[in-house]
Amino acid sequence: MADNKLFSDFAPQSTQEWIDKITKDLKGADFDKKLVWRTNEGFNVQPFYRLENMDDKAFMNTYPGDFPYVRGNKKDNNDWLVRQDIIVEDVKVANAKALDILNKGIDSVGFVLNWKSINKEELATLLEGIYMDCVEINFAKSHSSVELLQNLQALATEKGIALDKVKGGVAIDVISGFSTVGNYCQSEESAFAYVKEAIEASKALPNYKVIAVTGSLFNNSGSSIVEELGFSLASGAEYLGRMIDAGLSVDEVAPKIGFNFATSSKYFMEIAKLRAGRMLWANIVKAFGASNEAVCKMYVHGETSNWNKSVYDPYVNMLRTQTETMSAVLGGLDSYTVNPFNSTYEQATEFSERIARNQQLLLKEESHLGKIADPAAGSYYIESLTESIADEAWKLFLAVEDKGGYLAAFKAGFVQDTIKATAQQRDLAIATRRENFLGTNQFPNFGEVLETIPDSVLTPEDKTAADAVCETLKPYRGAQAFEALRNKTDIYAKENGRPKVMMFPIGNLNMRKARAQFACNFFACAGFDVEDHNGFTSVEEGVKFVTEKNAKIVVICSSDDEYATIAPELFEALKGKAILVVAGAPACADELKAKGVENFVNVKSNVLETLKAYQAELGI
């Protein structure tokens, strides 16, 4: 091979030399404040990482398939199962749908029973034509999981299928149930006794999960990634401890636990979350006394998050679910569900389900993301995120353990208070557009109208029982507040017409264009009828135009210097016929307020609260 002079031509640069260069380019701005990102997860993210950042990470010396499985459970691939759920109302109809989607690329089916009981004959009908040794079969929301396990085993035996080939799970999660309802169907003792009974009933099905740790509950309640992971690990440890106390061994219990995580839009952090989760869970199970390292593997089923999905401009949800799926797959998991783009506000359609299936199939069959073990390995950034998330999640896990475990911490309100604090921060970030929801709080579709949205779609999901012994978690969507705001205008417009918001561009061409664009985007988030204009040559011309348009709000868009004279003149000319708003935060704001101009919108505005106030002023 010929000598490559590339590296000799460019001398290596130290980290400090890079920092010095960046600091110089910042021209006096603070490096940490300008470039270091403080995350909701409780740690800082640096603007760049280098090989030297990998020196102290012990997990870098492991291979895929090796303990603590940070690099994946599999040694030679990153394959996963493509799952789709089916709501079972009629077993024959559900069976027909299952056979149809299995022919379209699905290899994991989830039957959602909605707390119905099905007997052996009905189960046989439901699974007719499905090869139980080739397809993962899951059940959710079953009223009789123990009987279901027994019938499933009997059917497999009758068909001559080896029981170790039957894969899937029944998703029992009494801890999640308590967290959402605030109590148990009967008692805590009977709930965990039922979990033990289910584990024992599934002994002959070694690859069939019984316990589902529903981390997606935390995610969809507004938690951070660290909180989702930390509280999920604490829930898993609670199950281990309770079952061991009930007489089972860790080797019997751990393989029966599956973790269900939701994937948010934080692309790189979601990759790191799964890697960190496997590493921490492996060490937790080992600490409980597992006899071999294989028992310490974390089984993960993932799904796209509901928290960041929107009702308005819903096709944007496809973009969100695609990036979420990719990050989850790169992080490594066993199966994944893409929730259809419209599933948050209506029953999924054949079209939306097809799109959801194909989103995974594209990544698997065309991008070949299942072929390479630990595809994220070696990225200095992702490896550093893995360590940071693991460190913070472990701190949270220990804090929960210090309070007596997950259930004790939940009854004391620690879990709820922690998640609520994060959710409130995120809600504020959405209200001020520091966290963007495309089509909802940023760049809305101006012409979109949704006149009928069920109240349940616009409010948190509250399943709290009348006899709840503590506060519960209430999943919601971050876009709900803006959606309720806009829907309020949509409903008002049916009988009263849609309030007109007119831009009043005047003066400096560049400033008026930029501020008009900003203000149009701002007021369209409330569903107002927003109209821009090329620009007025005088206040008189503009007032005549906006008055004829019957504008309820007039937004003056100009330069700071021109506001001092034009804004008061426009305010007087309007004579209270419309609300005058200044786009920007001019230095002369106090002077303008003294002259009666009191309304301003700018990048520091709380968009949600500001628009609510204008709705109230307009009588909406």
Automatic annotation (TrEMBL):
One of its GO terms (molecular function) is metal ion binding. Residues 121-480 form the Methylmalonyl-CoA mutase alpha/beta chain catalytic domain. Its cofactor is adenosylcob(III)alamin. Gene3D superfamilies: Cobalamin-binding domain, Methylmalonyl-CoA mutase. Coiled coil: none annotated. Keywords: Cobalamin, Cobalt, Isomerase. InterPro entries: Cbl-dep_enz_cat, Cobalamin-bd_sf, MeMalonylCoA_mutase_a/b_cat, MeMalonylCoA_mutase_a/b_site. It comes from the Bacteria. Its EC number is 5.4.99.2. Belongs to the methylmalonyl-CoA mutase family. This is methylmalonyl-CoA mutase. It comes from Ancylomarina euxinus.
